[in-house]
Amino acid sequence: MLAAKKLLMRDIKLSGREAAVVRAIGFAESMLGAEILDSTRMEPEDVGDTLNGLIAAGFVETIPYAEQVDLAEMPSTAFEVNPAYVHELRTAIARR
Q1: pTM for this prediction
Q2: Which of 14, 22, 42, 63 is the most buried (most CB within 10 A)?
Q3: Euclidean distance between CA atoms 6 and 15, whole angstroms
Q4: Where are the alpha helices (DSSP H) in 1-96?
Q5: What is the CATH number of the domain that holds 91?
Q6: 84 pLDDT above the threshold of 90
């Protein structure tokens, strides 16, 4: 049974930027884009591109829902980790 469950789990690999953004968002509550910018100390364009990639992969969700976020809207948009991927994302961050 454990082997079957392990096969169903997705082995997520995050880039350094993706890991930094997921760490900034955290796993408990949503976080505004402006707070993510402050926490990661990355360029706004890089954070926007990274967030849009994580959204496209289904790992991060926006509040309110959007398929992608424009750079101008990012600071006032709330982001949260998709609850379906919390365990796998924690594992991916711990491996870094």
Answers
A1: 0.87
A2: 22
A3: 22
A4: 2-8, 16-25, 33-40, 44-57, 86-95
A5: 1.10.10.10
A6: yes
